[in-house]
Amino acid sequence: MNRLPSPALSRRGFVKAAVALGGASALSACLAREAPDLPTGPEDLSSLPDRQHAWNAALPTDAHGNDVAPRHRVVLLLDYARDGAPTDADRETTETALRSLERAYPRSHDDEVGLLFTVGYSPAYFERFDEALPGSVDLQEPRALAPFEEPKLDRPDATVHLASDYGSVVLAAEAALLGERDELNGRPADASLDGVFELAERRTGFVGTGLPADHQDVAGIPDSKPVADDAPLFMGFKSGFRKNQASEERVTIQDGPFAGGTTQQLSLLRLHLEQWYDQDSRHHRVATMFCPAHADEGLVEGTGENLGDASLMEERGCPMHTERDARESGVVGHSQKSARAREDGSPVILRRDFDSTDGEEASLHFLSLQRGVGDFVATREAMNGTDLAGGAVGQRQNNGILQYVTVERRGNYLVPPRRLRSLPPARPA
Amino acid sequence: MTGPNTGRRAFLSAAAGAASVGLAGCSGLFETRSTRAPPLVENRPDAVYVPSHVEGMQMAGTGTAGPYRVALSYSYPHRFWLVTGTDVQRVDIESDDTVHLMVTVWDAETGVVLPTSSVSVEVTKDGETAFDRPPWPMLSQNMGVHLGDNAALPGDGAYTATVDVDPLGTRATGDFAGRFDDAATAEVDFEFSQSTLEQVPFRMLDDRKGERGAVDPMAMEMVPSSRLPAADELPGRLLGDAESGDGRFVATALPAPPAGVDGSGAYLAVSARTPHNRYPLPFMGVSGRVVRAGDTAFDGPLAGTLDPDLGYHYGATVESIDSGDVLGLEFGAPPQVARHEGYETAFLDLPPASIEVG
User: Fold this and answer.
1) Has residue A291 got a pLDDT over 80?
2) CATH code of the domain containing B316
3) Structural domain total, chain B
4) pLDDT 10s digits, A226-285
């Protein structure tokens, strides 16, 4: 934690490097660079949404109406310090610490994200209760989801996902939660999670124009500095088109005591982009990321900004032609396959993923929200395209972007509604 | 990641030193590098042709992974061609490439070489990663079916290659049914030295280059050949053969489908192979149509399949196939396999073909 990034880095580069390092000295250096001019959050929290995952209203939108993801992220994986059922005192401390974050930072300010966060709990956490989760919650143990992946399975008790357009804000919020600072944005921190939870792991990252290009000097990306300056993600293409995202309503649990909650799956995907950038053609990259029709017809310019608010899947008949493309074109696209899991043309998962250089390796923290984990499993199975493999298309080769991605870890969590976010029981009254 | 990069640069500066020695002495690395990427043959035919040169390979080592045997070998870095649909992309040698790294995977029991596209290789030296990616499935005139990519190995020394073989992902039949359903990992330790690489044979083919034809398969110790059986050695009743895009398509019929294929009736197998060397043409889209006295008796896709006796082929269950039937073959995607020189212009445009069943 005492190695600071070189000041010669650009501002955005410096901030991202500081987020990855973490710690008090990184925070102070980062604060000095960014000097965020944010007011404090509201003292009266009654207007905050009950859905923890209701972030979209606080996100800026781009010229096409797409929500723009917060640029800096930290995910904390936490273990509850006590065996057995949580105590009311621990619940109280947790809730006070979380409210302290909400009072310290606005959710948004001047078209920028101040601080957004969610808290989730794993199947391992809920094992401590005598009763199982209600049937209205589809929370499954993580597992391998393809014959060609062997992920390690994450089983911490809880996870906190912190997001801001300012690296210094996610770092400060993290430090306050961990009990490493007692002041946030000029306001005292009322409590911390120290003593209630133990930190098992932290993951960091970033998403948005310019950040991947600034951080491409890592394993998995060739030395030729191929990531475009305007790329929002390492693979060089835009994602998160409005029409490719499930609505917050679609991913919200509708019934039972956890109504208003959602589920979160978090995978760690390592990227291997040497061949992608140094050997593959642009035609191949567009065909495998989007759809062969997009490559044949030249539909994607640059990062795909020209596509507007949709990746033109249904419009070009991509999902319905997947099998034919596998046989006739010998290649199928990632978006094309995934779109097969849509319901009446609408996606069932809401992506809130981000890139990372944790461990000096190019990777993607694939974080998605869905009403039940089964929705993610169905989307992932469609994306695997195992049904398409065996002929011209291989299990991974020419089969979307599977060849460039290794699934290292998977974990699943219940993100309860805000009223139950602090150490919830399995069967709330 | 600074380790391998530093090592790579260090190796390159050593190579630069060797080059200046080479200039003075008319031998050494500089000359080696320039002559080992000779210009492409002009006016290449849209067919299999004799390449500008032929090179041997150096075996690094072999290992066992579940039901698989794997061999790791290397040669000089060289250009190759990737195929996505009908889009062909030439991959040139990068300035820091030191070898062309190759992996061959075969069934330990039968020695049948597996056309697979799902293998990942990590090569480390002194704990630092020097190569970490899935090599491309490839077709070479003297090596046949293998996986390969150019690699930048950081100098002489002891290396370890970890080879992850995914489940085959191709329908497997007969005694192969169920055999390749699990992933497995092999480790191969090997010594690499530039001087060993320099001893790999390299021969220009100036008098034959560009002619239609192919160099002969290389005899490889320890590694089985990926050649398919000759037409008259295939099991079943030989139905005939056809040509398309310079590929050869031999059709045979088994009286019943092999284990691992549902349905009853006869089994139609089409063995797609290169001319001259009889290597399989994997990862194609193939459909078959059986016309009997003007009526269609079968019309459907033929699935890429691996069988211990037929080898890699495209097959489907048909009710029957008789004398006088006409078997029509249509091709979707051409073989989605990377090509070494001499194969990159062939098997791309595949017009329909037909076989009259004798």
Assistant:
1) yes
2) 2.60.40.2480
3) 2
4) 999 999 999 999 998 999 999 999 999 999 999 999 999 999 999 999 999 999 999 999
Answer yes or no: are the C-beta atoms of A218 and A361 closer than 8 Å.
Answer: yes
pLDDT over 70 for what percent of chain A?
Answer: 97
Interface residue ranges in chain A relative to chain B, Cβ cutoff 8 Å: 147-148, 150, 217-220, 223, 272, 274-275, 278-281, 283-284, 287-288, 292, 295, 326-331, 360-361, 386, 389-398, 403, 406
Verify whether the Cβ–Cβ distance B82 to A288 is below 8 Å.
no
Which tokens go with A51?
């859905």
Task: Give contacts of B82 with chain A, Cβ < 8 Å.
Answer: 279-281, 284
Domain boundary among B169, B204, B239: B204
Domain co-membership, B182 together with B295: no
Q: CA B35 to CA A25: how far, in whole Å?
A: 55
Q: Tokens 């048909």 correspond to what residue? A: B318
Question: Is the domain of B63 the same as that of B194?
Answer: yes
Q: Which residues are CB-contacts of B151 (< 8 A; sequence separation ≥ 6)? A: B74, B77, B97, B98, B99, B100, B101, B123, B130, B131
Q: Is residue B270 part of a domain?
A: yes
Chain B residues within an 8 Å CB radius of A278: 94
Q: What pLDDT score was predicted for residue A323?
A: 95
Q: How far is B122 from chain A (nearest CA, A)?
A: 11
Q: Do B188 and B62 belong together in one domain?
A: yes
Q: Is residue B213 part of a domain?
A: no
Closest CA to B181 of A376, A399, A395, A143: A395
Q: Are strands B136-140 and B338-339 parallel, antiparallel or unpaired?
A: parallel
Phi, psi dihedrals of residue A204, rounded to the nearest 5°: -130, 165
Please give the ipTM for the structure prediction. Answer: 0.87
Indicate if B12 and B139 belong to the same structural domain. yes
Range of the domain at B250: 231-356
Global pTM reads 0.90
- Asked if residue B209 is part of any domain, the answer here is no
Q: What is the structure's pLDDT at B358?
A: 84
The answer to whether residues B251 and B121 belong to one domain is: no
B82 by Cβ neighbours in 10 Å (0-12 / 13-18 / 19+) ranks as: buried
Could you read off the pLDDT of B103-128 as tens digits, one per residue? 999 999 999 999 999 999 999 999 99
Q: Cβ-count burial of A279 within 10 angstroms (0-12 exposed, 13-18 middle, 19+ buried)?
A: buried
Do B187 and B299 share a structural domain?
no
